Amino acid sequence: MSDREHEIYDVVGIGFGPSNLSLAIALEEYRDNGRANGGENGRAHDQENEISSLFFERQPTFGWHRNMLLPSATMQISFLKDLATFRNPTSSFSFVAFLHASGRLPQFVNNQDFFPTRQEFHQYLEWAQARVADRIAYGSDVTSIRLLPGAVPELSDRLRLEVADAAGRAGRVVEARNVVVSTGLVPSMPEGTERDERVWHSSEFLEKYRRMNPAELRRVAVVGAGQSAAEITRFLYDELPHAQVSAVIPSYGYSVADDTPFANQIFDPGAVDDYYFGTDQTREAFWRYHRNTNYSVVDDEVIRDLYRRSYDDEVRGVERLQFLNLTRVTGVKRAGVETRVSLQVGPDAEVRELEFDALVCATGYNGMEPTALLGDLDRHCLRDEAGRYRMERDYRIVTDPEMRCGIYLQGGTEHTHGLTSSLLSNIAVRSGEIADSIVARRARKADVR
Ligand code: FDA
Ligand code: NAP
Fold first, then answer.
1. Domain holding 61: CATH number?
2. Ligand 2 within 6 A of 417 CB?
3. Which of 30, 202, 357, 361 is most buried as measured by Cβ atoms within 10 A of its Cβ?
4. What is the mean pLDDT of residues 267-284?
5. Is any atom of ligand 1 closer than 6 Å to the C-beta of 369?
6. Which long-range contacts link 339-346 to residues 24+ away (Cβ below 8 Å)?
7. Which tens digits make up the pLDDT trace of 173-200?
8. Is residue 406 lining ligand 1, measured as CB closer than 6 Å?
9. Judgement on whether residues 303 and 372 belong to the same structural domain of the protein
10. Ligand 1: which of 21, 55, 57 to mutate, judged by most atoms within 8 Å of the beta carbon?
11. d(CA 376, CA 427)
């Protein structure tokens, strides 16, 4: 293949977490539907229904927040909100189909639990990705998306993507009529805090923890009052019976994640329209009333587990689990193996310094941010007064009218599509909407020709 002739796809996905896995399945089922309806003309339908696609993932194999696969962590959504069911309840890619294939369907039902462990859901995702493996390139980091060299947007119906291999070597170049960016959340550290071998973000927790000798960890601290912080605090308390575990929490105590039925409606597919087509006032109300379904909150069961451990300590006259409440981390200094942490404590913001052997910052994430990937292409993407991407309902960035390629986002659209943007709740339906949009735009282009 010469330099000027590259692989060309209808869709290239960047990042292969659950969102783009769900899209790969939606495209696969679109093709299979065509075959099923094609009868004797199956071949013609095959061509019509084949949306060529390739998905790039920088990890060497599939992995969904592997560093947080803690033994007893459970899913925060029902198993029915899997990769496909809400779009196609008869899909062979459903969690129920996975259970059947694994010979565990009766046992799962006997367990009477809507919320599988994260470990089991990970097995499900691995099973599903293996069935679309011919469309995934692992160990492949997309480094840029550009217009074709010398092209003006109105004349080009393709974008060019550069991809580096696992060793960081540039080399592969592909072209795409549509890109779907799904690169995930971006870890956020407290200001003045750099990561190192003893200061970790929760997103790298298990990897960094396993590099340590547990005997060396006698004083550890976990920062934050969200689900990640509570799960890691519980894990460290159980794993390190000789250690003191300090929970640095900005609130007075952990707050519960509201997953009661009425509040849960915020994650229904229909809520996306209510948010997208709502007014600024309705959108503001969504956040004001329902932020506590997801952010800085913890599942009831984990809160009770932690309180029980703390109370048992009290009965035994030990204080292994220490809660530093109304406290924020403001900086960290490294002195050899000592990690000196600056804290702002209580209503008067009293400054304190404490030393730990390791500090885990479970301080959350920022939304997906594709600006760097888009580079110069970004100037064709329109933004609102607050500097955020303007988005079409079908998750396409609003671009200059002459741009003919589609740039879709899975993630990073909380400001336009609401709370499900960074979550799993709506991925089956969202992927179906993106697939439909790509198919419909292709058909419109064919009509124009
Ligand atoms: P995700 O982050 O999963 O995947 C993005 C992928 O893109 C990664 O694999 C990354 O390696 C890859 N990538 C990034 N840049 C790239 C590049 N330039 N080139 C190639 N590849 C690139 N939500 C929910 O609804 N229910 C739940 O139970 C949970 N549980 C949960 C647990 C934990 C520990 C966290 C941190 C978060 C959750 N979430 C959640 C929210 C979470 O955002 C969601 O579950 C999914 O991970 C979203 O899937 P995505 O595919 O969009 O991103
Ligand atoms: P999060 O909910 O955003 O919580 C971050 C916490 O860090 C907040 O309490 C925040 O307090 C605190 N914080 C930030 N800076 C701080 C500082 N300098 N000092 C002290 N505290 C600070 O993040 P998360 O817990 O990682 O959760 C992110 C997403 O992952 C959520 O969707 C969650 O449901 C999901 N998750 C799911 C599972 C699971 O499925 N089992 C496990 C983990 C996470 P303020 O709010 O005051 O800033």
1. 3.50.50.60
2. no
3. 361
4. 97
5. no
6. 339/198, 339/199, 341/221, 341/248, 342/192, 343/248
7. 999 999 999 999 999 999 989 999 999 9
8. no
9. no
10. 57
11. 29
Residues 90 and 57 in one domain: yes
What is the position in ligand 2's atom list of the atom closest to the CA of 191?
A: 18
Residue pair 377/399 in contact (Cβ under 8 Å)? The answer is no
- Residue in 89, 85, 79 with CA at minimum distance from that of residue 120: 79
Contacts 24+ apart (CB under 8 A), 391-394: 391/416, 391/417, 393/273, 393/276, 393/277, 394/433, 394/434, 394/436, 394/437
Would you state the structure tokens that stand for residue 236, as one six-digit string?
A: 């460290």
User: Which ligand 1 atom sits closest to the C-alpha of 373?
Assistant: 18
Counting DSSP H helices and E strands in the chain, the numbers are: 14, 17
Partnered with residue 200 across adjacent β-strands are 360
Q: Are residues 28 and 167 in the same domain?
A: yes
Q: Are residues 245 and 342 in the same domain?
A: yes
Q: Look up residue 161 and give its amino acid.
A: L
| Residue whose CB lies within 8 A of the most ligand 2 atoms, among 77, 81, 296, 414, for a mutation test | 296
pTM: 0.96
Residues 436 and 336 in one domain: no
Residue 335 CA, ligand 2 centroid: distance in Å: 27
Taking the C-alpha atoms of residue 445 and residue 432, their distance in angstroms, rounded to an integer, is 20
| Interval 131-163: pLDDT, tens | 999 999 999 999 999 998 777 766 678 999 999
The separation between CA 59 and the C-alpha centre of its own chain, rounded to angstroms, equals 14
Question: Which of 227, 360, 419, 421 most suits a substitution to test ligand 2, by most atoms within 8 Å of the C-beta?
Answer: 227
